[in-house]
Predict the structure of Helix-turn-helix transcriptional regulator.
Amino acid sequence: MCLSSAQCRAARALLAWSQDDLSSASKVAKATIANFEAGKRSPYERTLQDMKHALEAGGVMFIPENGGGAGVRLAKRADASIDTNETETVQYEEYLENDAPPGAGG
């Protein structure tokens, strides 16, 4: 199986997706998703693939079973990179008040 019910629930939680959101993104009926996540039935492999691909497109990475158990995590987004230019000074408003003692020239 390519997707467990626990991975599906966890992936939706990471994306803050409802079952309706996953249904829209994967073109899988909401009842099928609900029954799968509740452990009531196992969908066809193709249906599981559709759900998995939709969650991956939303930004989830699936971690294979490697002795520690299968899991999910958010993928690192290219647009979420951190600027590490340490030559620039950044001043935040809360640090701009003058807290130097009087006469200290601050």
